[in-house]
Write a structure and sequence with these properties.
There is one protein chain. This protein has 335 residues and is of the alpha+beta class. The protein is built from 8 helices and 21 strands. Helix content is 23%, strand content 33%. Strand 1 and strand 2 form a beta hairpin. The longest helix has 18 residues. It is globular, with a radius of gyration of 22 Å. Keywords: ATP-binding, Nucleotide-binding, Transport.
Length: 335
């Protein structure tokens, strides 16, 4: 059996006294596309930098294909990280994209040209139009796509993307999505993407991991935020339309507690019930494997997602804008 492309054991990373990431055990299989979602400061960027071998964890072990991996070691050349705010060298587009190839001792002009042009085409930039354009003559979306082309030219085994669509236009975001999926198809590239662009993410990953307070949840889960009113051992969240959420309150005194519910424990019903929370369907999306549908429902600041059989969607007309009734368990986990 092949080793996972990444394995993380007993990892802790701190900035001073603040623990930014704590992972007991985690594996990433070859060829997976994984979305990392969570609020600012949750640990998404930290995880990407550690897996990208550009930052050393405070403690713990990182394995790449079954072998220990250390920051800036030779194996890091198989991994490409696109940071949240990438920068370009003060050169033209061709020289920016060719830079990493030249570091890897590729000097043949014809091979360089072929790889640079292919990478630009992958991100939707015409080589004839953009190859000789200077770095300062690019829009924000074009700069982001050139930065991605710099990584794709290396044909990486692993591509790590930190907020790749932040501050870019919708057109550039779609071209970035297309480039990521093409890279995956061409080279079976393993991709991890941290993003707040949930609509964009719904169309890309095989699975979604949630990161919160430095902890990683690899199962299908949902977060429900406060504020909560604690009354007689119950945590109550009141909505403007008079509906309430009532859970068993956390046993421990947790500041600003957040409820965690596994998607599998959520029931969807199609007629009003006293125990059902009336919510509105926001999205119905095909998973990337096209075997299941993901449905997203919302009420004010709450958004829940879970998978559902395609036949139910058609039978009960579960389309965006329609109401549904959601049953949630009374007992939840708190963090």
């Amino acid at each position: 059996m092949l080793s996972p492309i990444f394995e993380v054991k007993n990892l802790v990373h701190s900035y001073g006294a603040q623990i930014a990431l704590k992972v007991d055990h985690l594996t990433v299989e070859k060829g997976e596309i994984i979305a990392l979602v969570g609020p600012n400061g949750a640990g998404k960027s930290t995880l990407l930098k550690i897996l990208g071998l550009v930052e050393k964890p405070t403690s713990g072990e990182i394995f790449f294909k079954g072998k220990p991996a250390r920051p800036f070691s030779q194996v890091s050349r198989k991994i490409s990280l696109l940071p949240q705010q990438p920068f370009l060298l003060k050169r033209n587009v061709f020289d920016n994209v060719a830079y990493g190839l030249k570091i890897r001792k590729i000097r043949d002009k014809q091979i360089l040209r072929e790889k640079v042009y292919k990478a630009l085409e992958l991100v939707g930039l015409s080589p004839e139009e953009f190859a000789r354009r200077p770095w300062y003559a690019l829009s924000g979306g074009e700069t982001q796509r050139v930065a991605l082309a710099c990584r794709l030219a290396l044909e990486p085994e692993v591509l790590l993307l930190d907020e790749p669509t932040a501050s870019v236009d919708v057109y550039s975001a779609q071209l970035i999505k297309r480039a990521v999926l093409k890279a995956h198809n061409l080279w079976n590239t393993t991709v991890l993407i941290a993003s707040h662009d949930y609509a964009w993410l719904d169309e890309v990953p095989h699975k979604t991991w949630h990161i919160f307070k430095g902890h990683i949840f690899t199962d299908e889960i949902n977060f429900i935020w406060g504020p909560w009113q604690i009354v007689d051992g119950k945590a109550i969240k009141q909505f403007r339309d008079g509906q309430k959420l009532v859970f068993n309150a956390p046993y421990k005194n947790i500041d600003n507690p957040v409820a965690i519910i596994e998607s599998a424990k959520i029931n969807i019903t199609f007629s009003p019930k006293k125990v059902g929370l009336k919510m509105i369907i926001k999205q119905v999306n095909s998973e990337i494997n096209f075997r299941e549908l993901k449905i997203v429902v919302s009420l004010e600041d709450i958004s829940l997602n879970f998978k559902i059989d395609e036949d139910l969607v058609k039978k009960y007309e579960l389309w965006p804008g329609n109401p549904v009734y959601i049953e949630l368990p009374g007992q939840v986990d708190w963090i």
